[in-house]
Amino acid sequence: MADGRPTRIPLSQLARGQRAQVECSALDSLPSEHRCLLAAMGLGETCEVRVCRTGSPCIVQIDQTRLGLARSVADKIMVTPIAAK
């Protein structure tokens, strides 16, 4: 966070139970068809995710929905970790 912005890391690097903030720009490295599909499942705009399972598939929870993501996709989704309370 040297320039004052929060550090973004790949979703795949989060630990089980960890929460993070996802922003639309975090999906820019994915093909447009993947971005549209993820947005339709709730992973779009600005949302908070919680990691339920690491590895492949990486399972994340958004509100009351759980999504299974291939490791190759989770590697490309950049997130900002949320500090534990």
How would you characterize this protein structure?
The chain has a six-stranded antiparallel sheet with strand order 1-6-2-3-4-5. By secondary structure, the protein is an alpha+beta fold. Strand 3 (47-53) and strand 4 (58-62) form a beta hairpin. The protein contains two helices and six strands. The chain has helices at 32-40, 71-74, and strands at 9-10, 19-22, 47-53, 58-62, 65-69, 78-82. It has one domain (9-82): Ferrous iron transport protein A (FeoA) (SH3 type barrels, Roll).
Task: List the keywords.
six-stranded antiparallel sheet; 85 residues; globular; SH3 type barrels; 15% helix; alpha+beta
Write the layout of secondary structure elements.
Elements: E1 9-10, E2 19-22, H1 32-40, E3 47-53, E4 58-62, E5 65-69, H2 71-74, E6 78-82
Give a quick summary of the entry.
The chain is α+β, with helices and mostly antiparallel strands. It is built from 2 helices and 6 strands.
Q: Segments where pLDDT lies below 50 for 5+ residues?
A: none
| Count of individual helical segments | 2
- Biggest sheet details: 6 strands, antiparallel
CATH architecture: Roll
Shape: globular
Mean pLDDT: 87
* Strand arrangement, major sheet: 1-6-2-3-4-5
Radius of gyration: 12 Å
Task: Tell me the number of strands.
Answer: 6
Oligomer: single chain
What is the CATH superfamily label? Ferrous iron transport protein A (FeoA)
Beta fraction: 25-35%
How much helix, percentage-wise, in residues?
10-25%
Distance between the termini: 20 Å
